[in-house]
């Protein structure tokens, strides 16, 4: 069962269970997936890896929105954004530990033969598919930068 099919099945459960926040969040995720599928020159079906990328982007939006609402003294809206973020996180792969990330960075550096900060792009190109939503892009970039310096 693909991740999109899982989301659709969970939406049905949320509707039957009258779970308002879960229902709205899953609908939003399915909408984001559909928008991504029809964007571009021709419609296509996303792979699970691409769906994870879309969901990661949505989770990041929720986190940023919650921070903005907290800064704006809108606690009730911040709580809703945090709750949506928690629901989205249940569909994402477990986040990578720092030690595992460091190991993958070293392997990518060895594979590319990179040395110095100028080779960061080559290392990131090799590393990004291996990580696939299991670590934040900023964290990966920081680890690569630290390893190359």
Using brief descriptors, characterize the structure shown.
mainly alpha, Hypothetical Protein Yqey, Chain: A, domain1, 2 domains, Arc Repressor Mutant, subunit A, 7 helices, 0% strand, 149 residues
The secondary structure category is mainly alpha
The helix tally amounts to: 7
Report the mean per-residue pLDDT as an integer: 89
CATH architecture of the largest domain: Orthogonal Bundle
Provide the number of structural domains.
2
Largest sheet: none
Taken in chain order, the helices and strands follow as HHHHHHH
Q: Tell me the Rg in angstroms.
A: 18 Å
Uncertain regions: pLDDT < 50 for 5+ in a row?
none
State the CATH class of the largest domain.
Answer: Mainly Alpha
CATH fourth-tier homologous superfamily of the largest domain: Uncharacterised protein YqeY/AIM41, N-terminal domain
Count of strand segments: 0
- Provide the CATH topology of the largest domain: Hypothetical Protein Yqey, Chain: A, domain1
DSSP helix fraction: over 70%
First-last Cα distance: 43 Å
Shape: globular
